[in-house]
Design goal:
The complex is a heterodimer of chains A (about 190) and B (about 140). Chain A has about 190 residues and is α/β, with parallel strands linked by helices. Chain A contains four helices and nine strands. Classes of the chains: A alpha/beta (about 190), B alpha/beta (about 140).
Chain lengths: ~190, ~140
């Protein structure tokens, strides 16, 4: 007579695993950390003079403590910033007030007319709100991303974010670099 | 039955991370559209800035590193600690993510950024949620 194999009571197993499941559900969060990535410049060497940049190659953006914008010495609005930045960086009409253009030879893209060394200079007050600052950074990034998209569409037929070839990505990045320079902070106004 | 639930359990354990820090400050990150995902979670150190949740810690913006309040002077030490906790090869890939409340003034943020520049932590990320920016 075969021996009856002992049975394991698995009914409570489901309860235990349910308990564990709820515990993990509560203590954990699916965090999708997102943000605007930037690179800080290395500290300034006091002995080295900063290079002179021609006025036409700089696009100045100032944010005051009341979160108002001053773009190229004229009051502006956050909704206009992207268009102004795009116009500055691409200089379609070769305007002498906008940055100098230069023929650049970039691998995969070939010869293309690009801004020589256009720089966006961003300066904020200590009293500026962080929300405004991020919005300005966001608009400027949007301008650069749109220019990259246009170039990528033109040369490779897909949007920049959909490029898969490392070489193509690098080529577009070299053609339109993120050139947002932040001025050395000055202590004006209160906290 | 229990097999299926165990499967669920493992699924959640794998895709989630346990909340590491308890925040003492209020952080509601601003919204932006051009956000990128932070890659390599293990190579990210966080700096939180915001107004303390409890009134007894004051009403002005404070910095939180790990599980305690900190001042601007503590940042360099914090970054050094974070670096020492990583492999030597990964140290230069370390990103500092700044989770800052949107009502914070830029003064304290600039101070933190200056400290990060001094210690050489150049890769930073302004934490933001994806969405349409609020108009003010």
């Amino acid at each position: 007579m075969p021996r009856k194999s002992p049975e394991l009571n698995t009914g409570s197993m489901a309860d235990i695993s349910f308990l564990l499941l709820t515990f993990f559900l509560l203590t954990s969060s699916i965090n999708t950390d997102m943000g605007i990535t930037r690179r800080l410049p290395p500290p300034l060497d006091p002995n080295v003079k900063p290079p002179e940049i021609k006025q036409r190659n700089i696009f100045t953006v100032l944010i005051n403590q009341n979160n108002k914008l001053l773009v190229e010495n004229a009051p502006s609005d956050i909704t206009l910033l992207k268009i102004q930045a795009k116009e500055f960086l691409s200089n379609p009409a070769n305007d002498p007030d906008l940055p100098e253009m230069e023929m650049k030879d970039i691998p995969y893209i070939g010869k293309i007319l690009l801004a020589k060394n256009a720089v966006i200079s961003l300066k904020n007050d200590r009293g500026t709100s962080y929300d405004m600052y991020v919005q300005v950074q966001d608009e400027l990034t949007k301008a650069i991303n749109e220019l990259r998209d246009e170039l990528s569409m033109d040369k490779f037929g897909v949007r920049f974010s959909q490029l898969s070839d490392e070489g193509y990505i690098e080529a577009v990045k070299t053609a339109i670099p993120i050139t947002i320079s932040e001025a050395e902070p000055e202590n004006v106004g209160g906290q | 039955m229990s097999d299926i639930i165990f499967m669920f359990l493992f699924f959640f354990m794998v895709i989630t991370t346990i909340r590491e820090t308890t925040l003492f400050i209020r952080v509601r990150v601003p919204q932006a559209t051009e956000v990128q995902k932070l890659e390599k979670k293990s190579l990210v150190s966080f700096i939180y800035i915001g107004v303390p949740l409890q009134g007894k810690y004051g009403t002005s913006s404070r910095i939180q590193l790990n599980d305690q309040f900190a001042t601007v002077d503590d940042i360099q030490e914090f970054i050094t600690q974070e670096r020492e906790a990583r492999d030597e090869a990964d140290r230069r890939l370390l990103t500092t993510s700044m989770k800052i409340d949107k009502e914070t003034r830029m003064g304290i943020v600039s101070d933190v950024k200056q400290e990060l520049r001094k210690i050489g932590a150049f890769k930073i990320n302004y934490s933001a949620a994806k969405g349409k920016a609020s108009k003010k």
